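Let's practice the habit of predicting before peeking. Look at the sequence and jot down your guess about where helices and strands might fall. Then scroll down.
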Amino acid sequence: MSVGENIKRLRREKNITQQQLAECLGISSRAVSQWECGRTAPDISQIPALCHVFGVTSDALLGIDIEKNEETIRAILHEAEEVGNQGNFEKRTEILREANRRFPRSYLVMHRLADALVNEYCRKRIKDYSEVIALCKRVLDECTDSTLRYEAIDTLATAYGYAGKKEEMHALAAEMPRVHFSYENFMMYRWKGDSEFSERQGYTAYLLNHLLELIGPLSGHCHDDGSFVYSLEERIRLWEMQAALLEQFFPDGDYQYAAQYGESACHLLASTYLSRNDTENAWRWLEKYADFAIHMDTYGFETPHTSPILRGWADGGWIPEGGKGQCDDLIEWLESDSKTAVLRGDPRYSALMDRLKKAKE
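Done guessing? Here is the structure:
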């Protein structure tokens, strides 16, 4: 971070204007603006006065301490990410909490900790998000990095949503740019050549996953009185569409991360047909559910797609918490749900269970 960026950050932390800082130093506000834009830098004779105004050392003002710490911070954040990738979310939070104590002025650490806490709290159904809110608000109040600020807005709005603070969530979400103002949307027709093809694939992967994911909340949307917008027959058609779209997009069966949406749709379809005592249709969707679950548990992090639309692109893997995979969830449902009891005497049941257990090995 440059000295001008540090001055801008420290000035905002002190809640003083460029004009007020200029008056303290006996210079023009334009000079302060030029520093903060990186066009000029303070004279060495002005460093002591700046340090006095901000209450920091010259090393901190000049970014020397920050430069020394950035490498350590990156290493800690990488360690936290690796621990999270192994499904040890609580350990990840511990690492980030210690990093926040060690580097209390690092806005990147603050945000990573806030984001980890949201992940942990929502899984544990914790409703007190005061620590997350405090961390994100500090980033928004003090940080000048626009990307990190948008990430903090996203995390804070998510926390408000989980905490049941709907008005605060909507107010903050209104500050986010609409999708047509995104970098990816702007660059959609501008990416050229081999070096930028992966950018276009990445955006395509995002859009496909987003479309498939949206069908779920769309089908379950309710009126203000709590009744479903769509009839059950219409919801069945939407779930069938969700599974069919997956097969259309990925004819090679290389669903990767998107297989989770097929799982969800097939689970709903199988459960609905069981409620109607239509076991044949239930079996039809149950077998597809198993296909998607097995795929989720067995494809590799670095496995590239083979279907044309994303050929060569790898979505990355998903992280099963505590080693519990999608096949485990399906087995648990089959063994414990009263609706599935009707299936257990069918020879297909044993064959399906064997297939799921083999996939776990």
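How did you do? The mean pLDDT is 91.
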